[in-house]
Specification:
With about 80 residues, chain A is of the alpha+beta class. Chain A has a single domain, classed as Beta-grasp domain (Ubiquitin-like (UB roll), Roll). Chain A contains 3 helices and 5 strands; from the N terminus they run E-H-E-H-H-E-E-E. Chain A has a 5-stranded mixed β-sheet with strand order 2-1-5-3-4. In chain A, strand 3 and strand 4 form a beta hairpin. The model of chain A has no long low-confidence stretch (mean pLDDT about 95). Chain B is α+β, with helices and mostly antiparallel strands and about 140 residues long. Chain B has a single domain, classed as Molybdopterin biosynthesis MoaE subunit (Aldehyde Oxidoreductase, domain 3). Chain B has 3 helices and 10 strands. In chain B, strands 1-6-8-2 form a 4-stranded mixed β-sheet. The longest helix of chain B is centred in the middle third of the chain and has 18 residues. The N and C termini of chain B lie far apart (about 35 Å). The chains are: A alpha+beta (about 80), B alpha+beta (about 140).
Chain lengths: ~80, ~140
């Protein structure tokens, strides 16, 4: 087992209801596995997860990223961008 | 150099002395301010939220890539978080440069990239309710 520290921001934080969670996962889990796990536990999170990016230890990471024990994952909804 | 997320009011001139050196002929400062509407929707105030450590790191990375592209001097970026009222400054971005053309180019590049890549979110609050403003995201980055 590995333990991942997950941080949620903006709409993701509101959907899950907390800023931080410690999530135990099996060895070999990926970002996609983590997102699936969170979506099962927090149905409101699914809508946010559909458009969010993720970062591992402050760098953007893809769905196939292989997580390691103690990694810090941030769920990053689309940033405000837009109007110029 | 200064790349910071802060929870306090910003003053228009506070980055000038941070970036300006005797070899500079121009200091360009962009300030983003809170407006009272978004499209047809009235806004009463904004709430900004940041992933502070990553945001500061991404700002520094953007400055590095600006230095690779243009011959500009020092760069500083301050972004405010928390509740901001109409007319208050949300972001200050200053670029010092020996010559103005490169300062304009670098400043435009930095503010555009910043709004796409730096993890800072804006919630608009108004009579019609409140909602997180979501840009188009960054299509070059993988989605989970």
């Amino acid at each position: 087992m590995i333990t991942i520290e997950v941080m949620f921001f903006a709409g993701a934080r509101e959907a899950v209801g907390t800023q931080r969670l410690e999530v135990p996962l099996s060895d070999g889990a990926t970002i996609a596995g983590l997102i699936g796990h969170l979506t099962d536990q927090y149905p409101a999170f699914a809508r946010v997860a559909a458009t969010a990016q993720t970062a591992v230890n402050e760098e953007y990471a893809s769905a196939s990223y292989l997580l390691e024990d103690g990694d810090e994952v941030a769920v990053i909804p689309p940033v405000s961008g837009g109007m110029r | 150099m200064m790349f910071k997320v802060v929870d306090r009011p910003l003053r228009m001139d506070e980055l000038h002395e941070v970036v300006c050196t005797p070899s500079d002929g121009a200091v360009l400062t962009f300030s983003g301010v809170v407006r009272d509407h978004s499209g047809d929707t009235e806004t009463s105030h904004l709430i900004y939220e940041a992933y502070v450590s990553m945001a500061e790191r991404k700002m520094a990375e953007l400055a590095e890539s600006a230095w690779e592209r243009w011959n500009v001097g020092d760069i500083a970026i301050l972004h405010r978080v928390g509740r901001l009222e109409i007319g208050e400054i949300s972001i200050l971005l200053s670029v010092a440069s020996p010559h103005r053309d490169e300062a304009f180019a670098a400043c435009r590049y930095l503010i555009d990239r910043l709004k796409e890549e730096v993890p800072i979110w804006k919630k608009e609050v108004g009579p019609a309710g409140d909602f997180w403003v979501e840009g188009p995201g960054s299509p070059s980055e993988p989605m989970p």
